[in-house]
């Protein structure tokens, strides 16, 4: 049995290491995308060496487009994750595992990104369709995990402050669930026209890139409590916690 001070049991786990670990996974995933681009391997003594190198580079434009698209999408997920942790103040074990599942989906993105670059820009529509379905399915799962992370943290103010704006919470939930619907539509479009599905992939991220009123939103917690909390942390005194200090058993 582990014995914790009552103040520690109430406060819950901190989020610093979650953010650090998550940033590391995002960084690795976004870096792995470049591995889908190949350096031309042609012996330098062959005739027309420069022309052959340029020809190989030209054939990689689909992989380059897939790299740019996926880089932006992972960046969008990182920004959303970063913004969420501005409001999420603590964590617990279920929250940690939801975050792990989200990171698993993010770390998988380089694989369908490679498939997209390899098959979605060629004439064989069946291969393009398979690549786009796998890519869209990965993004749907990633968005669902991101939505679950926010829902779990904000449900009954489980891991957020009590005075967070309920309208803001609902707006973020709706915004998070927009992507799964759009990517589900893109899967349907792939049966009719793989090109149309591909266009959706490239256009939809603009919805999250352009600033919205969510980006300008600050809860009362951010403005009113931030400075007092910093002062309490610096002095090591918090009357609301130290006043009820005791020990509590957890299993």
Q: Could you give a short description of this structure?
A:
This protein has helices spanning 6-11, 16-32, 49-58, 61-87, 93-108, 110-119, 125-154, 166-192, 194-203, 206-209, 220-235, 239-242; strands at residues 2-5, 247-250.
Please name the defining characteristics of this protein.
mainly alpha; disordered C terminus; 12 helices; 3% strand; 251 residues; two-stranded antiparallel ribbon
What does it look like?
- This protein has helices at 6-11, 16-32, 49-58, 61-87, 93-108, 110-119, 125-154, 166-192, 194-203, 206-209, 220-235, 239-242; strands at residues 2-5, 247-250.
- It is mainly alpha-helical and 251 residues long.
- Helix 7 (125-154) packs antiparallel against helix 8.
* H/E element order: EHHHHHHHHHHHHE
User: How much is the radius of gyration in Å?
Assistant: 23 Å
Shape: elongated
Q: Percent of residues in beta strands?
A: under 5%
- SS field, number of helical segments: 12
Give the strand order, joined by hyphens, for the main sheet: 1-2
- The count of domains is 1
Oligomer: single chain
Count of DSSP E strands? 2
Mean pLDDT: 82
Biggest β-sheet description: 2 strands, antiparallel
Measure the end-to-end span.
5 Å
List unreliable stretches of 5+ residues: 4-10, 218-251
Helical content stands at over 70%
Q: Find the structural class using helix and strand composition.
A: mainly alpha
């Amino acid at each position: 049995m582990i014995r914790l001070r009552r103040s520690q049991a109430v406060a819950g786990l901190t989020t610093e290491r979650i953010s650090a670990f998550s940033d590391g996974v995002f960084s690795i995933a976004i870096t792995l995308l470049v591995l889908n681009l190949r350096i031309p391997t042609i012996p330098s003594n062959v005739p027309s060496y420069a022309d052959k190198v340029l020809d190989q580079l030209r054939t990689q434009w689909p992989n380059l487009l897939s790299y740019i698209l996926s880089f932006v999408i992972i960046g969008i997920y990182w920004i959303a994750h970063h913004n969420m942790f501005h409001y999420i103040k603590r964590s617990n074990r279920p929250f940690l595992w939801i975050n792990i599942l989200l990171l698993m989906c993010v770390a998988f993105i380089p694989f369908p990104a490679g498939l997209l670059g390899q098959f979605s820009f060629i004439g064989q529509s069946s291969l393009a369709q398979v690549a786009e379905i796998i890519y869209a399915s990965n993004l749907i799962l990633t968005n669902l995990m991101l939505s679950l992370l926010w829902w779990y943290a904000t449900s009954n103010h489980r891991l957020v402050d009590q005075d967070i704006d309920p309208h803001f919470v609902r707006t973020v939930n709706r915004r998070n669930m927009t992507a799964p619907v759009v990517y589900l539509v893109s899967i349907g479009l792939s049966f009719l026209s793989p090109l149309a599905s591909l266009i959706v992939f490239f256009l939809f991220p603009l919805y999250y890139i352009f600033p919205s009123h969510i980006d300008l939103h600050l809860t009362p917690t951010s403005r009113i409590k931030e400075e007092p909390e910093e002062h309490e942390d610096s002095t090591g005194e918090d009357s609301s916690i130290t006043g009820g200090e005791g020990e509590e058993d957890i299993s």
